[in-house]
Each structure stands twice: as C-alpha cells, then as structure tokens.
Amino acid sequence: MPEILEVERYERLAARTVGRRIARVDTPDAWYLKRGADAGAVQSVATGATVGGVRRIGKLLLIDLRDRMTLGLRFGMTGRLFVDGIAGIDELEYGSSRVEPEWERFRLEFDDASRLVMHDPRRLGGVEIAPDESRLGADALTLTRAELAASLRGGRGPLKARLMDQSRIAGMGNLLTDESLWRARLSPTSAAGDLSDQEITRLHATMRQVLHELGERGGSHTGDLQLARTRGAACPRCGSSMLRQTTGGRSTYWCPACVDGAS
C-alpha cells in the first residue's frame, strides 16, 4: 500500500514531467475526481498547461501547473503511478502486479506523446484541484522531535491512531507505524498524550531510522516485522506470540511482551 516511502518514489518519477506541456487530460472514472472536481474542471485547468514542478507532502503528490492551479494525486491502498511506461513501484504489498486498462483512472498526455497515468484497481485514490495543503501535518520524512511532541500532546486516543492522523503527521501508514512502534517497544493502544519525554525521544529516533532503512530497502513493506503480520506468528525479536487487533480502525500487529514495562 502506498505510504510516504512509495509516494516519495512516485515524486521522483513524476519529476520527469517538469517542463512538459499537457496536450490532453483523460478522466475515464468520474468517481476518481474528488472534492467537487469534475472532468470539465480538470480538463480546463490542465489542458495546455506546462508542469512547473512536482512536490510531495506526506502521501499527497502535488503537480504544480505553471500559471495555473495545482493537481493533487492520492493513491489510496493500491494506486500506482506510471510515467513514460515506467512504474514507480513494480508491485505493491496487498495489491496486484497486473496492469489492466480498466484500472487506469487518470491520465495526462503530453505534447511529446508521453503519458502520466494513475493505475488503481480498488479505486481508493483520487485526483483533486488545488488541494488544501494546510490540512496536512508535518511531513514524516522531515519530522522534528518538537513536531512529534506537539502532535502527541493531549491525545487521549490510541498512539497508533494519532501517528496515522494525516492532519498531525503526514505520511505514516499502517506498515510504517506498526514497524516504528514495535521497534520503539511502545504499545499502539496506549494514550498518545501519555508518552514521557524519554519515550517521545525514542519514538522520534526510531521513526527516523525506520524511514531511512526501509527507504533504502525498497519500501514500507520491507520492515523487520513484515513476515510476522499473520495470525499466530511469533515476534521476530523475542519469540512471543504476536497480537493482532484493530486499533484506530486498522489491523495492528504488536508484541505485548516487548513493550517497555511488560513483565
């Protein structure tokens, strides 16, 4: 599933389009246009425009159109990006590696006949015009300890849910959050606002390490915990039984025996 590491790769791939002029916009799936956008509006904004820049905030990919508005691309759980026929990710964890024409949800065709394509079997992503960037929190890849502390302050809900709240920290998904909490020996179900200063420092250092290591390995699905994300699996660190439960509406895998303070 595309988390910040995957969308970072999409950003690098999409950067190939900077300076290209959009000759045609195809929106074959009206459902994929979000927050009031429709085919006519997207075509009016993008057709004839030149890509001035490509940016990313968390899991949101931003295509800045020169002297026009910005297009925001979200990839949901199974969205992949193709530019010039090259895939940003060959295969997503829990997604399909197949490339079916009916799964193409959005296309930009350029003057030189090259294309940028969003491919999404489950249709959980979307495209919008001028997304409200202020709704997103600090980007996880550049998150400071002070920003992490501020995002957790006062939180009575589960720690995992707070870390995945995109309005507070942009980019953390299910796999990266479970990996970070497991490595930091913190319970995903503990209240976010109850972490001590020492625990916040440890969590921040661990998140930085996870994002760096998994980025080098190839994506959010390459964590040390990944093979234990099945029922009845043993903890890769201590051998105890992993616990699977729903936290913040997401399937969560963690080891109660590894949490600091556990007997």
Characteristics of this structure?
263 residues; alpha+beta; N-terminal domain of MutM-like DNA repair proteins; Helicase, Ruva Protein, domain 3; 2 domains; 5-stranded antiparallel beta sheet; 4-stranded antiparallel beta sheet; 6 helices
Produce a short descriptive summary.
This protein is an alpha+beta fold and 263 residues long. The protein contains six helices and 13 strands. The two termini are 34 Å apart.
**Residue share in β-strands:** 15-25%
CATH topology of the largest domain: N-terminal domain of MutM-like DNA repair proteins
The counted number of beta strands is 13
User: How confident overall, as mean pLDDT?
Assistant: 95
Domain Formamidopyrimidine-DNA glycosylase catalytic: 2-125
InterPro entries: FPG_cat (IPR012319), FPG_N (IPR035937), H2TH_FPG (IPR015886), Ribosomal_uS13-like_H2TH (IPR010979), Znf_DNA_glyclase/AP_lyase (IPR000214), Znf_FPG/IleRS (IPR010663)
GO molecular function: 8-oxo-7,8-dihydroguanine DNA N-glycosylase activity; damaged DNA binding; DNA-(apurinic or apyrimidinic site) endonuclease activity; lyase activity; zinc ion binding
Family: Belongs to the FPG family.
Task: Please provide a written account of the structure.
- The chain is of the alpha+beta class.
- It has two domains: 4-134, N-terminal domain of MutM-like DNA repair proteins (Alpha-Beta Barrel); 137-258, Helicase, Ruva Protein, domain 3, CATH 1.10.8.50.
- The chain is 24% helix and 22% strand.
- The protein has six helices and 13 strands.
- The strands form four sheets. It has a five-stranded antiparallel sheet, with helices on one face. The protein has a four-stranded antiparallel sheet with strand order 2-3-4-9, with helices on one face.
- The relative contact order is 0.14.
- Keywords: DNA damage, DNA repair, DNA-binding, Glycosidase, Hydrolase, Lyase, Metal-binding, Multifunctional enzyme, Zinc, Zinc-finger.
- Residues 226-260 form the FPG-type domain.
- It catalyses: Hydrolysis of DNA containing ring-opened 7-methylguanine residues, releasing 2,6-diamino-4-hydroxy-5-(N-methyl)formamidopyrimidine.
